[in-house]
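Suppose a colleague, Dr. K., hands you the sequence of a protein chain of 96 amino acids and asks what its three-dimensional shape might be. Before reaching for any lab equipment, you can write down a predicted structure in token form. Begin with the sequence itself:
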Amino acid sequence: MWSRRAFFLAALYILAAPVYLVVWLARLPKLVRRLRVLRAGWVTCASCGKRNPLNVKATCRRCGMTEYGNRLFCTHCRQVSKWFDCGGCGASIKVL
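The predicted structure, expressed as tokens, is then:
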């Protein structure tokens, strides 16, 4: 009975593999764009054109801790922010 169940499970994985491959390939360009922004270390505001650095003194929105480092990640509560406000005009900049 276990061999039959294992066979059907293996067949299911084999049939699902192309679907997962297509989904992964569809998400790849977005992932590459995100990594390029994170490695650059700054984001340009679409409204005012100001270059906003990612590594600054920032305050976490969840726990309120202020620290130097990446403004998208809090080392205290592990919060990951997907956006921040522009230092020039105050517009929201979506990064992730």
